[in-house]
Protein 1
Amino acid sequence: MLLLAVSIVVSLSIGSAGISVRDVWGILIHQLPWLADEPVDYSPGEVAIVTQVRLSRVLLAVLVGACLALAGTGFQGVLRNPLADPYTLGVASGCSVGAAFIILFGLQAALGMWTIPLVAFCTGTVTLLGVFWLSRNKGVMQIETLILSGVIIQSFLGAFVSFMVSMSESVVNQILFWLMGSLAMRSWDNMYMLMPFLAVGFPLLLVYGQSLNLFVLGERHAAHLGIRVERTKLIVLISSTLLTAAAVSVSGVIGFVGLVVPHLIRLLVGPDYRLITPLSAIGGGVFVLWADTLARNVLSPKEIPLGVVTALIGAPFFAYLLHRRKLKQGGSL
Amino acid sequence: MIEARGIVQSVEGRPVLNNLSCSFQKGRMYGIIGPNGVGKSTLLHLLSGVEQPKQGEVLLNGRSIYSFPRKQLARQMAVLQQSGLPPVGFSVREVVSMGRYPFQNWLGNEEHDSETTIDEALTAMGLRELEHRKMDQLSGGERQRVALAKLMAQEPSIILLDEPTTYLDIGFQVQLLDTVRAWQRERKLTVIAVLHDLNLASLYCDELVVLHRGTVAAAGTPQAVLTSALIEQVYETVTAVIEHPLTGTPQIMLQPNSNK
């Protein structure tokens, strides 16, 4: 929590516009309603950058990170698969297909601002079902097969998104945006869009924390202890897919957040999902915030796509997990 | 009391149980025996209420077992699986306290303090020294003891055991069944155990249920059931049955065919 607060403060303070740290905070404090009457000496441009661009972006990064990390926690818990994550399962790509389709054909108006996340959720769910169907062998899902299916579906859908985007007028940036993820050019509206999804998904996953703990012992053990296994699986998978859809709708596909964060949290606090779930939400926020701060500052004023940063960190981590799993084959991670 | 009526069930398309009926009285220890693949574990699985049979019904105290909410059922019935507990990162105490799940509300709180129940279960299984150890640092036998302690913490009145002694050496086999038997007598529990070893079944069970060709071939006390003739009919091998020198229960002596 403290780490999150510190990260927000630092990230707010740095940026390409060259506003001094003092001015950033002057502007922000000035926004507080009870101080608004004091005289101002900041240019409207600076004020706009801080409140409209930077503050919204920082908060959005935190929320997107929380969504993705929570989704990863849910997938890992219910599938008992340490390599599961919205990205490796292909769900994120599935969501992006729906979202890209809506945007490119200009269908946003149908249901107002909820069109994109809802369609993304539908295509994400279909993708998840497809991945399960591909990987199921006589009713058993092998951990590696599941991930392999996810990767196959993900590259297929990724190609599909690229194809759709190449057909549109404004190309290169958008391709990067959807395939590599970015938080550039987002606004407060995006954040309002994200909020309800988080408000539904987060408490649900919290309530099911103890159930996920029992899942660790195996589905049958969980059933014998009085858990409605199918219902729990359904609710956790749907919550996780919802969170993924919301995150993808505002930021494109940002990989590996849901993989890395719950694992680091698990290393820190142990296997109890009642702790992992809330801490992953915070950790995910911190992780994406730092990744995004790097993304917009390292080559400033140029931006690196956010997904590039998370993949540079996440892919080696994924390889490490795979390697460790190979070492203790047969044991669970 | 648990009762199975006219059960028909297939596993992966192969018919296993065919019009099977049997009943289990409160406060007694039952052994389900029979050759490989006869459907012993399938029957136990059906009795646990997790799966429904194709035909027939399972009644718990006269009411269909599938009509119970899962948590309510778990407060009455606990199951020890053949596979045992996996080597997870939870500590022994954490796993044993998971046995309290059926008594918790959706916030994870319990009406009464359960710590003493958990302590008792740990003590009964001799796990007090290991309680803070992680499951993945334990041996198979130790994990089986944790599984049993978790069962005790669940405070059931009916216990189903699926080949609980399969992966244990004879010392642990006797220790485990001694514990179960003592606990069963003390709390007047109903125990239904699938057992591979006929001699252990004979030593520990009040009654045996012999499965053969998808149905019950014989049921009754070990003395009544374990006869040379029945064993030859069911297992297709000739054996000698003698009395145990201390307990008087029937014990099976295997006979190699080359010795005739």
Protein 2
Amino acid sequence: MREYTQLLQDVKSLDRDSLLRLSGFLDGLLLEGGTATIASAAPATIAIEQKSVLVAFASQSGNAENVALQLAEGLQSIPSCAVKVADVAELNLKKIAQYAYVFVIASTHGEGEPPDTAIQFYEQLKSNRAPQMDLVEYAIIALGDSSYDEFCAFGAWIDKRFAELGAKSIVSRLDCDVDYEQEVEKWQGELLDVLSKSAGAEVAINGSANNLADGATKNYTAKNPLQVEVISNVNLCTDHASKLVHHVELEMLSNEISYLPGDSLGVSVSNPQSMVEELLAVSQLSADGQVSFNNKQLSLLECLNNEAELFRITNKQLLSLVENYPNKKLQSAIANEAKISEFIFSQDWLSLLKHYDKLSFSKAQDLIDLLNPQGQRLYSISSSPLAHEDEVHLSIRLREFGEEKHLGLISGEISRLEEGDRVNVYLKPNKNFRLPEDTSSPIIMIGSGTGIAPFRAFLYHRLELGITSPSWLFFGEQSFRNSFLYQSDWLKLLEKKALSELTVAFSRETENPRYVQDRVRENAKEVYKWINEGAYIYVCGSAEGMAPAVNSALVDVISEQSGVNEEAAKQRLQQLMIDGFYKRDVY
Amino acid sequence: MTSKTSNTPNKVLTLNELVANPSANEVIKDNSELLRGTILEDLANDVTANISADNSQLTKFHGTYIQDDRDERLTRQQKKLEPSWSFMTRVRIPGGLLSAKQWQAMDDIANKFAGEKLKLTTRQAIQFHGIIKFELAASMQAIYKASMDSIAACGDVNRNVMCSSIPVGNSIHNQTLEWATHISEHLLPSTNAWFDIWINGKKASIEELQKEEEPIYGKHYLPRKFKIAIAIPPLNDTDIFANDIGLVAIEKDNKLLGFNVCAGGGLGTTHSDNATYPRLATQIGFCKPEQILQVCEQIMMIQRDYGNRSERKNARFKYTMDRVGVDWFKEELHRRCGFELSTIKPYTFRHNGDPLGWSEDADKKSYLVLYVENGRVFDTKDSRLKSALREVANLNICDFRLTGNQNIALGNIKKADKKKIEEIFKQANYPIECSDFSGMRKHAIACVALPTCALAMAEAQRYLPDLITKIEPILQKNGLFNEDINIRMTGCPNGCGRPWLGEIAFIGKSLGRYNMYLGAAFDGSRLNALYKENLNEQTILEELEVIIGNYAKKRKKDEKFGDFVIRLGVIKEFQAPVPI
């Protein structure tokens, strides 16, 4: 332990640049899973001897923000305080609960309502799921207008709620009317007195962000998944969009599963009961008939429920079905290659078998022989374990099958999930899709639709680690207004410099419809410059349309900018891939 | 108080010379290169429909505001989408006069860019809501193509100049309208920024910028907005006393003799801030038509030089007037003009509403004033005002006149064409005689408020019609259904719907809650006063039940509602706080 104290002393004496380099080095170690000696030694947080102080504001007109800034300035005079000022709109309550001291400046809007920007904070704090705050000491300034009935009500409510959650008030709440400057000054004096008296005392280390080097996470799999709880589930698209993309936040403790940006999460779900029942009816088979599947003996029902893939159809399966059970309607629906892939994309096994007016299998095994074992459902994680501690976020496009448009296996599950429900998950690491170990490397990220997911994880990770090397995100979707996935996140990441360039392409805008590959070509000169400067290129999205289109755009960029022919450009791109500078996560 | 510096208009002052503690807006103007800022860069940014905070102050000078749909705010926040940003653009229309061709163009713009709706404002302008940033320049170009613009329709400059435009008993309205246009043009900023940004889409060169100047305004423009309105007695349909400069057109033998000049009016306040208050314009003197440009310019320049540039809440000319005093102001005005105004000529205002229905001028041309609820021109399934106006415009048989009460008039109609117009409105199922409407509904004004106005604390135009529907049974019961009572509602105390001039008025405090004001004069010559705070619908109706009941029982013959509540002592006449 003494070594560790000495190490900390040494680290603290470093200048800012050295600290940044060290931070990158530590990150590199963490990315490799952490070596035993370092990982067991310490979390990577450096300023642990300071008390973490949060000054949070909930502002309607900017007054609360001004008071917060003023208070933070005053707090700088106490050396043992590491002060952060933030809008409650940008804070997660769980994070708030990890600070040693929390000071909230809250305006009250209208008749005792929270300011617009604080509504999510209000909902989180109100919720039964609000975290305990036993380790937090707090104080509150409520701003209001005494000509309203519910004077300062929101600030008073936060006070009450913090106390209920176990936090300790260190200075009693100040309720301010429209003229508040002097009162605030006096109150601030009191607060600083209290704080500086307790300045020498050691406090628990709160909010250490990088504690993910815990190599002891368990090995969960599709058949042995971890059950986790849903924190929230929202459709990111508006009602005017022609698609549904859900953002699902799950609570996943880092000592159960620890992940890194670039990893995927598998979701395990049994086949929907109604679908299995209908399938049994269509195929006129008895549920308890015994079958042999995947080297196991089990009942047909059990097999259809848990073992067999009922949504995805392969080319081979389809052709074998038609060969063994001829059907005119089906045959015309799959007359050529193009039709086959289109057909497969839009059908599941139930809708497929419904093409037959009357389908009779002589025995259960005949049906089972057509089916494959249930495939994995993997989703690129869209959160960073540093920014979204003990959480994992997924970005899932809901898919529909057949003429009746019933939802896919996971889509159906996701569309039903509510806060507090449970889901089975397991980790699928993806070592080939990681942020560069050299944190000064530029990165180019190209994604469309939910292909954007890992880049949200990347960028939030960079934000937390303070990495500001050049980063360029190309994003494609259908509509600026209705399906600009994670728009407010990107704007925040741009503002905080974790992202330096954002180039967007919307394919269903009446004026100027474009795709990501078009925007890559438009920016050929700049893209090529980045490549030459050692940029890592990441592509995530559909393997059918987007990935090859982006690939050929990159070939064009290289060929056009370096004056070589297409073949040579292809080779150059291939070499980039071999050298690990061109990484793809396509599906 | 601001430091008093040179009164010579052409000396370029640095911001620090101008004022020791400039407000944030002054700094933005100072850095803006005559209102350009980085608006062009923001327009080119395709990852957000928003613009920077500084630029959103500057676009106001170009007649366009960024707003968001507050109904969608929370949902979009949860969906991790930015707010539903869009622009409100206000077209400058001096005196509210448009040709039929121009109305066609406005209608096209509404269809193409603004959700097929037009909003007629209380200052005789047209507002388009919901224009997305990426189409903003194209919509401006469409306005410009119709020989119109949105220059100075908002911002710290002289706004759209208002003027009565419906003939009542005399026929000086067309001559007077021309003066409204002259004043508006004369006081326009001279920067080329509007054309650079919206029409040419490119930044001026350094040489061009160096050549540019603002001879009247200077680079800091005015401390706050500035409003001018002209009324032709007996109508005060432009509510001139609510303006920084209010002009009363004086007529003799169907000729415009000149103007009574009133100065220092303004309504906007801040809730719970006693240093802010509404003020009616003070009568200053009379001038001839050919003197009016100079008089308006010099009044505005006194405000430019003496207005408060540190505290925006106290920056309007009304506060300057109270600070320097009316006598000093008159003396300074005379000194600057080089001539004295003569004594006020007698006149009488009858009311500040509109003469709805048909009327005729001295040249036997007809006018039709149509009632437009809250100034909102759009079609519903049942009643198609917007289509009807378009159809009339297509015939090119009249001009279009917006009134200060958010209504619209068709003017200069030949007798022979009256039938055609009546037929069009009949087909569109839009009433041209509002005989079914209560007197209160005909005299109602509400501002936009929710969901697009960022200042709104409560509903206004989406709610006032419903509230009137609930008041009407009380009026009916008391035999007052046809009594003309002036009622106004705004979502905030900023004053867009001129609430302090309502005989009954409501100013929003929070969702569903209003401060209630009573007792303004029916002709706009007396402010109302705060009656009760924080009323909800139920308490509003309870209060009105009693007051209207008393009014029916105890009023003198022809006594107006506003006069009655003062006489009976329901409310005390408003007293402005003594200026510091």
Protein 3
Amino acid sequence: MTPLRQEPAPGDAVAWLRGVSHRYGAAIALDDVSIAIPAGSMAAVVGPDGVGKSTLLSIIAGVRRIQTGTASALGGDLRSAEHRRAIVERVAHMPQGLGRNLYPTLTVFENLDFFGRLFGQDREERRARIDDLLRSTGLDPFPDRPAGKLSGGMKQKLSLCCALIHDPDLLILDEPTTGVDPLSRRQFWELIDRIRARRPQMSVIAATAYMDEANRFDWLAAMDAGRIVMTGSPEEVRAKAGAPDLEAAFVALLPEDRRRGHKPVEIGPRPISDGPPVIEANGLSKTFGNFRAVDNASFRIEKAEIFGFLGSNGCGKSTTMKMLAGLLPATSGTAMLLGQPVDGTDIAIRRRIGYMSQSFSLYGELTVRQNFDLHAGIFQLPAAERAPRIRELLERFELDAVADALPEALPLGMRQRLQLAIAVLHRPEVLILDEPTSGVDPIARDRFWQFLADLSRKDGITIFLSTHFMNEAGLCDRISLMHAGRLLAVGTPEALTRERGAASLEEAFIGYLSDAIGTPPSPAEPAAEDTSPVPAPLAPLPPPRKPGTARFDFWRLWACARREATEIRRDPIRLAFAVLGPVLLMIAFGFGINFDVERVSYAALDQDRTGESRAFLAAFEGSTAFLRQADITDPAELDRRMATGELALVIEIPAGFGRDLAAGRSPEAGVWIDGAAPFRAETLRGYVAGLSASYMADLTRAAGTPAAAADIGLRFRYNQEFRSANALVPGVIMLMLMLIPAMMTAVAVVREKETGSIANFRATPVTALEFLVGKQLPYVGIAFASFLILLLEGTVVFGVAVKGSLPALAAGALLFVMASTAFGVLISSFTKTQLAAIFATPVIAMAPALNFSGMLTPVASLSTGERLFGLLFPPAWFQQISVGTVSKGLGLAQLWPSHLALFAFALAYIAAARLALPKQER
Amino acid sequence: MRRSIANILRLGIKELQSLARDPVLVFLIVWAFSALVYSVSQAEKFEVDRGSIAIVDDDRSALSGAITDAIQPPFFQPPALIDAANLDPLMDSGRFVFVVEFPPRFQADVLAGRKPTVQITVDATAMSQAGNGAVFLREIVTREVARFLSDAPTAKTPPFRVAVRTRFNPNAEAIWYSSAMTVINSITLLSVILCGAALIREREHGTIEHLLVMPVSPTDIMLSKILANGLVIVVAALLSFTVVVGWLMQVPISGSIALFLLGAVAYQFSVNALGILLATFTTSMQQFGLLVIPILITMNLLSGSKTPLESMPVWLQTLMQAAPSTHFVAFSQSVLFRNAGFAEVWPKLAALVAVGAVFFLVALLRFRQSVTRAQ
């Protein structure tokens, strides 16, 4: 680590960076950035996607580790963990992505309550703050709505509320308005202004890709390719660039080579088409449950037209497009595509359309060229045409330089271009593009649009796309405004603007929106839209609590546990699997696992057919172990029937057996045993020996020989009746308490990594230990309840009562589920995907639980190495407790070392998980 | 039809390319077919093997010594001599599964014809060994006492002899059996998870939806997944059989590997279809994980590879006919150990394919709905 340079920071900076560089693998996100951001102001980092804005903000927020250089926020070194801990309660970080840090199944209130708890607020304070925030954001009518069911704008407001719950001094907003409709965007910034009016000392740093928004800020930093291009007030930036607006200024500020080839989009006049419409929707509706996603939409799209759907996220644009693409069946109404009714199962029509879904849906693990090859194959491009067509597209969409790169490594704009190139690979007649330019920088967007314009005007392709960018909507031939599932208006951008008498399309849209919201929502539609702005006066809040510096706080842990428990409650299917699975398995195993050999099919090859041979064969018939099948007539049949596994045992009696026996010539009978399954073969060997011996004893007793010289007393200890179920119940309890709880927790942390809510762990005072143990706690509860159910089931169904100490068993079970859930947490903290976690859990845990625990094979029979391997996992220890208390009548006095070992496992797994989950991102 | 085949191949190649880029999955597959097979097949034995035994000898005579000496590997570990006082704690701790107690004056009483009692105590919680072990011990004691007495020449030849011969695995080598069954369990474990979870992942990433707007049918998608994952697992299993089991563990494989491969392919089809079916019943990876565990354990324990199928209650045997593993275990035992040919095992192959086809069809019916519902 380089020593911290003691140069004073620019006096009024809330945060500064000096020589900070950051790379992800080979990609450089920040390239020697030095910047000082003024305190007490609204500062914005502007620039296209993928230039390093998010990395910059996350470093300032203290959630990302600094690789090189120095950085400071709120007057201290961000490389110092102590300083980060000290300021974490004064900083709020709202990560990128609509509602990414929210918990979708939790209600609005529960989300906020969770954040309040993380900051150590007591019940009254939380109530007061949540009421105040909900009122001021206009969310107060919906405290009980799940966050996942909110519209995009409302999600962002809720995210903001969550960030503001602890009165931060530094508010960091990473693209808070991307994907939000213009009205909500305006409301969002007004809200920020009101909050700043109340707390003028609060500094705001935001990132945005909307250049038109940048005018609101006091101070701007324009970024490109990991570098700061320019800083200053919007006026200064415009003046320096000599450009009329910020968007133009930004383009002008770019380095020469980036700007080259950039020119405004040119779209030629639309050729007049007199043919039938390419797309026609009539009264199209889609309902999910009682939620009406699309409500009676009707529109027509002509050939070669560029038709835009304008509206916020969650307004029904994607659903409509999916219905037209045949992905979703419509609830009512009709949709016609290229003159035919849309039919999801019609494969021929799919050759004529190209579709690009909202998220990147090509294969990230295939290279650009492999993706092209895959699609060329699927669309059955003639082999001779394939290579030239792919080459042509790589060239036309300027992708040839990255043909062998993985799409994941490409900047967003290029990735979207790739998706478009692939969507037109098979020369479709219609393109359905769902938000194709979301998050793409202005230059890339203009270029993308030039491609669209050419496709429409030169190739005559009809283009149906959705967007939430106003300036894009302005480029469409016609647009339709959509909100809360309904089409508000359809027409050319100019006509719509004119109709409302508005100055701009944005004004017009806001006008239409306000009208729509003013009307009372219909009952079929549970008000999925934003409400009108309610600029409630902001009351002074209770004074902020003194920041706690505790390294461990039980209440934060409790907040995590409560939240996890609520999420589990909202997913009853998962809970049912977790509890019912073991119950059913115990029944199956209790009855099914039986090492006794019973009902073995056998047959006789009796070549003697005398009374003696029949008498000997009859000795086998009395036993329940054997089940006699049809006799065998010749040796070939013997071979065949044993080879199929039909017969496990064959008794062969040679001709002359009876005669020789009578003559005392001691003839020999043969017995064939199927040795494929050794344990069965061995048992059969024992049975045969026993049966023949007793039969011979009967024969000789008749001849008057003395009986055995010694008695053998046989005692089955711990299980006198020698019932399989008695021996099995303790083992099944062990097996279930190992695998199911581990699987439940294995996904817990890694899921948050995938959905993004892990950001809350990084940006709030909660420590890794509180977070991990808090998440683990509800699963310990479920697993322990499952233990009680299994114990009850063992007693009631199988009559297996606990002979020893019940408290010792219960304590052992509690410690064991702590260890098994901790094992899952450990897997979850080092894996990167849920798939890997689900795969790894059984592959790692199954063998120790089944084979090395003593459940099936006694531990005493394992080799030393195997025994030690088994002892490296908790099952072998709990098996001793389980068998010891249930069957052997033991108690804590004999078993305490196992209890201790289980406790040690729980601690060790959590400690390892803690190491695998650093507080800061890399 | 031609289009379908081309699609399946295309998507299958894609599936392989994806897998190749996921080092964690590749590692887990390699591990499950190498280290796991090696270690588990050594440990998995349900016959009496290395049974731990203790002797309480209050007689210390020639006869008790002879019996003790007769207790030998491989069935038993060398017996440990213990004091009667230590018996309870040692059995409680699971240190010994069997204890044989000779009373004082045992030999003298035998010679005097007073019929003394040898007490054999068995830890019945070790259920896989207790029953058979007791039978063996009984046999040893009876035989040794008889031999001891026969020194006095009163012994008679038995009226007839029974020659017991074991077919197919004459020395009852446990490792032959357990190694084959462990490979089968690895196949099951990996196939169900790999195929099902891969589908859920594609569903979550939206790539399935993307495929459904192209000229690709759900059947193509499912078959391509089965084909690609099946190929990987079958190749891995084959390597495991030849390299780990055959070469490293020195297990002679007598049956027809080609026929076994044919069965493995049919098995792949049905377990992969099962994985897809389970994926269509769940909306998230979390649910899938919890649903898959009980099914995997059931297939591991109740398919006849660990305990004999015919010892289970009839209702459970019937139920287990729905599990492809039941048929595959029976098939593999016939092919690998009994040298069975196609003529003998085709009914099991047919059952495998039939079960797989049912899974596949139900999954197909639910496919589209599950893709759109999970959005």
